[in-house]
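User: quick one, fold this
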Amino acid sequence: MAQIKTALLAYGMSGKVFHAPFVAAHEGFELYGVLERHTKTADQDYPGIKSFDTIDALLADTDIELVIVNTPNNLHFEQAKAVLTAGKHALVEKPITSRPDELESLFELADQAGKQILFYQNRRWDSDYQSLEDVIKSQDLGPIHEAHFRFDRYNLQLSPKKFKETPIDASGIQYDLIPHVLDQAIALFGVPDRFYKRLLQLRPESQVDDFCSIQLSYLNGPEVYVVASLVTAKLPYAFKVYGRNGCFEKMRSDVQEDQLKAGVKPTDSCYGHAPEALAGLYTNVGRNGAVTTPVTEKSSNYLALFEAVYQTLRQGAAYPVTREQILAQINILASPAS
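Assistant:
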């Protein structure tokens, strides 16, 4: 079966680190083209790749089947719309848009065009999250009543990327880091019945939110707390889940981003192996009291995301990140803070 000729809409950090290495490594794809308006560097990494000066020229190329929308957040909606209108499949980074009505219009456009709109939520393929997922699916914790998902950094300096620090559409931490952990929570527990959200500006001279807390409430399930912050001086556990039988705690330990930035390829034998020192801790409370044991973390690889894309486009398989889940995410993000 023919490879999926794929193009990127940008070749900055996102394109170089999170997309190009996987498209190039997966035998079902051909890394065909990239939009480079100014500096042309992609050919140095991928000789023979086609470089386009404008998005119109890229979309006019009839050989391209899939376009990855990996540009600044405020451009995602219009560019995804343009991709679908051009008769191509779209894989769109988070957040796909900032408004539920825009998202639903993209769904409608994709259906009319007979094309797929797919969602790049790569943190579902982090090893630390998948370790948590395995523990929850095992049901060893018993009925879960409380869960905490965090994505923390400590950086008081404003980003040199102006679109991240300017109060424009889809800016701030609730559209940057929160979509990772919010998606993970929704993937595990479903669409919440209620939610409560708070946004803060904590860094000096910040014009956008750099702290976001969302409480997700489930009538017949747990209370789930989702937090992202740029002002967390000591990194806490990324995941804590409490059930009737015990607790699971997990530091953020996925190594893929750091490895990719260092030039490690997703096909290298060392890729994706989390350090044993950061193994999750499962505490079980039995007749003899509490016993804590480490939970060995499996390796992980974002190639699995691209395999899911391939299976959807070529085999008609259901994509694991569903429209319902993404619509729930955008509904929460678009709602005013309490």
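User: anything notable?
Assistant: The longest strand covers residues 144-152.
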